[in-house]
Specification:
By secondary structure, the protein is α/β, with parallel strands linked by helices. It has five helices and nine strands, in the order βαβαβββββββααα. The strands form two sheets. Strands 3-2-1-7-9-8 form a six-stranded mixed beta sheet. Strands 4-5-6 form a three-stranded antiparallel beta sheet, with no helix packed on it.
Length: 177
């Protein structure tokens, strides 16, 4: 028995964390759009801690479908139910959730969006979680797990934050300098 469609997600960033998020959400029946600012044929750079994440990504099924666009976000407008995204090169579009998985998205600096934690309403800053924890694939997997567990986006993001933040705090105290 096939699972029903869950929602629409915009993932900004086609690095390891962004692709892991897209694959994991697609596996959970989300319709996913991935934004990448590079040229269509640019390879995704896999360096440092992303190498370990890439090895783990290979375990995911390969028959997943998601759309890739080479575009940029001009503005985010969260509402009670999701986020309207203004793009620099085509019409605005509404998504249930937006996941910023790369720093150049600069979601924190977009007009009308003041983020004091990792998320606000339906926007998740995966990059900040990855930066704080150093666990790119785990952060992406936990985010997608949150949307599987909770039917409400806000509850899912709140669960994700409370699950991931202890790792960030623990890692900050155990980091070797």
């Amino acid at each position: 028995m096939a699972t029903a469609f869950t929602g629409t997600a915009l993932v900004v960033g086609a690095g390891i964390a962004g692709l892991a998020t897209a694959l994991r959400l697609a596996r959970s029946r989300w319709e996913v759009v991935v934004l990448d600012h590079g040229a269509p044929r640019d390879p995704v750079p896999i360096t440092g801690p992303d190498r370990h994440a890439a090895r783990r990504l290979a375990a995911l099924p390969h028959d997943l479908r998601y759309e890739t666009r080479h575009s940029r976000v001009a503005a985010l407008h969260p509402d009670q139910f999701g986020v309207t995204v203004a793009f620099h090169d085509h019409d605005d579009e509404w998504f249930d959730i937006v996941v910023c998985a790369q720093p150049c998205c600069e979601a924190e600096r977009l007009p009308g969006l003041r983020l004091e934690t990792w998320s606000r309403d339906h926007v998740a800053l995966l990059y900040r979680a990855v930066r704080d924890t150093g666990l790119p694939l785990s952060a992406a997997e936990l985010l997608a797990d949150a949307f599987d567990i909770h039917t409400d986006d806000r509850a899912a993001l709140a669960w994700w934050e409370t699950t991931l933040k202890p790792h960030a705090i623990r890692r900050a105290f155990t980091r070797v300098r």
